């Protein structure tokens, strides 16, 4: 059975790569990210989500860290993203997305776990970026 939960992604690439590099129709219109960025997200299947990032950025560029297993991933993600507003990258349309800049993966993880605890989510730690 697939494990649901929250994760953090960091990248190794110095040259910018489109967050939709695997889709040539929209790749040039999307934000680009480097090792200066990290991402927080949710997944119904953490292992599958890791493979998706490898397809977009190349396996040599992706560091995928599952950090918390829980069922209520949508509401947990919303609660955490509310705390990450100042670091969220805005796309061309001005919409904030889940890619972050100006925050370390360690600080991001600390915030994610603190929000989960403070808001009373039932979760299990499954990994760490430390």
Give a structural overview:
By secondary structure, the protein is of the alpha+beta class. 28% of the residues lie in helices and 28% in strands. It contains 3 helices and 8 strands. The strands form 2 sheets. It has a 6-stranded antiparallel β-sheet, with helices on both faces. A hairpin with a 5-residue loop joins strand 6 (88-90) and strand 7 (96-101). Helix 2 packs across helix 3. The longest helix has 14 residues, at 105-118.
Average pLDDT, rounded to a whole number, is: 94
Strand arrangement, major sheet: 6-7-4-1-5-8
Structural classification: alpha+beta
Radius of gyration: 14 Å
Most strands sheet = 6 strands, antiparallel
Estimate percent helicity: 25-40%
Q: Distance between termini?
A: 27 Å
Report low-confidence residues grouped into runs of 5 or more. Answer: none
How large is the count of helical segments?
3
Shape: globular
Strand content: 25-35%
Helix and strand sequence? EEEEHEHEEHE
Number of domains: 1
């Amino acid at each position: 059975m697939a494990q649901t939960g929250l994760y953090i992604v960091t990248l190794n690439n110095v040259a910018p790569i489109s967050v939709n590099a695997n889709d040539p129709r929209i790749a040039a219109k999307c934000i680009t990210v480097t090792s200066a960025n990290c991402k927080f997200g949710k997944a119904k299947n953490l292992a599958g989500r890791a493979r998706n990032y490898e397809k977009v950025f190349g396996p040599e560029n992706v560091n995928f860290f599952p950090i918390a297993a829980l069922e209520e991933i949508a509401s947990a993600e919303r609660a955490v993203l509310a705390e990450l507003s100042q670091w969220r990258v805005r796309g061309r349309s001005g919409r904030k997305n889940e890619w972050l800049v100006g925050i370390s993966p360690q600080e991001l993880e600390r915030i994610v776990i603190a929000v989960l605890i403070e808001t009373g989510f039932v979760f299990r730690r499954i990994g760490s970026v430390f």
